[in-house]
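Lab meeting, item 3. Inverse folding demo.
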């Protein structure tokens, strides 16, 4: 069971089951716990090789035992996501923990990854269970519908889920449109039905001043 001890600390209660978490994110535990590093962060050899080829880095550990384990990472805000057989796309650096039953891997994201210097792939989490994602400041969850597509600055993007299509607009960002940026940059446009998680602080990208 996942619950927020505070907005920046995740508590996971285990009764002999396991959870996957970002390597080094455990801050405390009670009871009996065993820790094991997961090679590559994905599912088996394919996941590990894909990450090496694409540059998508996600080092995770498996925590298994009886008791409560607490996780945090650099005082980032934590958001709980419930998956009901669907797939979550999330930047590797923003994934804190996931139920061990959830499958993790890589998914193609096109030019958004290139605009951030993270390669052309991002981390996927799929199945039934809970995941915890992090953001720099409280995340805002925005709904996308057929009537209301959404455009996002790549520096503020954290994750998305649902039946969404992405397209990429080059040469402009919110800041360059106002004459405050320079160089080539991107916006991400989402269409369809789903949710997009954005953070109120923009990460640096290599595609321009965003």
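The presenter then showed the designed sequence:
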């Amino acid at each position: 069971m996942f619950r927020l001890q505070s907005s920046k600390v995740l508590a996971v209660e285990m009764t002999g089951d396991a959870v996957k978490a970002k390597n080094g994110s455990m801050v405390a535990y009670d009871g009996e716990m065993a820790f094991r590093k997961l090679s590559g962060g994905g599912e088996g050899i394919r996941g590990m090789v894909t990450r090496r080829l694409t540059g998508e880095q996600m080092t995770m550990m498996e925590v298994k035992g009886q008791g409560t384990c607490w996780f945090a990472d650099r005082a980032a805000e934590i958001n709980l996501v419930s998956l009901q057989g669907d797939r979550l796309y999330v930047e590797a650096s923003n994934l804190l923990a996931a139920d061990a039953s959830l499958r993790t891997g890589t998914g193609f994201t096109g030019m958004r990854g290139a605009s951030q210097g993270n390669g052309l792939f991002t981390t996927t989490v799929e199945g039934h269970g809970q995941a915890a994602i992090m953001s720099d400041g409280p995340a805002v969850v925005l709904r996308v519908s057929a009537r209301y597509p959404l455009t996002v600055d790549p520096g503020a993007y954290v994750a998305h889920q649902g039946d969404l299509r992405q397209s990429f607009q080059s040469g402009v960002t919110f800041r360059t449109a106002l004459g405050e940026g320079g160089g080539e940059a991107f916006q991400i446009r989402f269409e369809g039905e789903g949710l997009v998680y954005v953070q109120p602080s923009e990460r640096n990208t290599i595609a321009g001043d965003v």
